Amino acid sequence: MSRLLVFGYGFTGGTFARRKLAEGWEVFTTTRTPEAAEHVRSHGITPIDAADRPALVEALRIVTAVLVTSPPTETGCPGLATLIPALADANAFPDWIGYLSTTGVYGDREGRWVFERSPLNARSIESARRASAERDWRQVGRGMGLTVTTFRLPGIYGPGRSALDRVRDGTAHGIVKPGQVFSRIHVDDIASALAASIKRPRAGASYNLCDDEPAPSHEVNAFAARLLGREPPPLVPFEDADLTDAARRFWSENKRVSNALAKAELGWRPLYPTYREGLTAIHAAETGGKTT
C-alpha cells in the first residue's frame, strides 16, 4: 500500500490528503490538538501528534511520500526541524518529499513573466523565509539523498475560499491598478500536480503551479458577482483604496507566473485553466447547477 504523511493539514494539505485517501492510499497527518486529531480521524486519516517523535518515526518508516505545507517561522521551516531528525532515526528514504512554497519568492517583476530559473527577489519577510526554507530543503535533500521537490504557489482558491465567498460577505473589492495582474490556482489543480510529481519525481526540482491566465482581481470579483446575480463591487482607483500596509505590500508585486515547466515535465494540465472555469465549477457545485 502507498502511504502519505502530510505535515500541516490545512486547506491544500487536506485537499491532497483526501484525494490520495480516495485513491486507496493510507494517509497520516500531523496534528497539535485533540480537536484537530478528531477532525482528521473523521475523514479516515490517521493523526500523529507533531511532538510525538516515536510515532512520527514509526510512520516515516512506512510512508511513500511526504508533503510539507506549514509556513516557516523566524527560526526556519518547522517541517524540516521536525521531520529530518525523525527520518534519520527511522533510516527512511521516502520516494518523494514535496515542499509548498510561494511565488512571492520572485518579488516584483513589473508585470513580466517569471519562470523557475528567474532570480529570487523576495520583498516581504514571509516570502524571504520561504526562499530560505526552499534552500534548506534542497541542501538537506542533497546531503541525505532525499528526493525533495519544491512547488511555488500563488493565490489559492477553492470551495469555501474564493471570490464567490468574498462577494457574498461584502469583502470583495473592485480595486483597479493599471497593468496589475495576479496569478492564482484552484486547490484541486494543486492536488493533481502533486500527484503527477509523485509519479515523476525529480530530486531538487522546483515547479510553479498556477493557472494559464494571470488576471486583475477586479475582473475576477466581477465575474464572481455575475455568477451570483449581484452587482460587482464598485471600481476604486488603487490610489484611493483604503488598504492595510500588508495589503499594499501585496499589491506592490506584479508578475505573470509561467506554469510551462510543470506542464512539460509532469504532463500536468490544470482542470481549471482560468478563474472562469474554476469559479463556475464551484458555483455549480454549490447550487446543483442552478443559476442564481
Lay out the secondary structure.
Blueprint: E1 3-7, H1 11-22, E2 26-31, H2 34-42, E3 46-49, H3 53-60, E4 65-68, H4 78-90, E5 96-102, E6 113-114, H5 125-144, E7 148-153, E8 155-157, H6 163-169, E9 174-176, E10 184-186, H7 187-199, E11 206-208, H8 217-228, E12 235-237, H9 245-251, E13 256-257, H10 260-266, H11 275-287
Parallel strand pairs: 1-2, 1-4, 2-3, 4-5, 5-7, 6-13, 7-11, 8-10, 9-12
Helix pairs in contact: 1-7, 3-4, 6-8, 8-11
Describe the structure concisely.
This protein has 292 residues and is of the alpha/beta class. It has eleven helices and 13 strands.
How is this structure best described in words?
The model has no long low-confidence stretch (mean pLDDT about 95). The chain has a 7-stranded parallel β-sheet, with helices on both faces. Strands 6-13 form a two-stranded parallel sheet. The protein has helices at about 10-20, 35-40, 55-60, 80-90, 125-145, 165-170, 185-200, 215-230, 245-250, 260-265, 275-285, and strands at about 5, 25-30, 45-50, 65-70, 95-100, 115, 150-155, 155, 175, 185, 205-210, 235, 255. The chain is of the alpha/beta class and about 290 residues long. The protein is about 40% helix and about 15% strand.
- SS-based class: alpha/beta
- Tally the beta strands: 13
Helical residue percent band: 40-55%
How much of the sequence is in beta strands? 15-25%
Low-pLDDT stretches = none
C-alpha geometry: globular
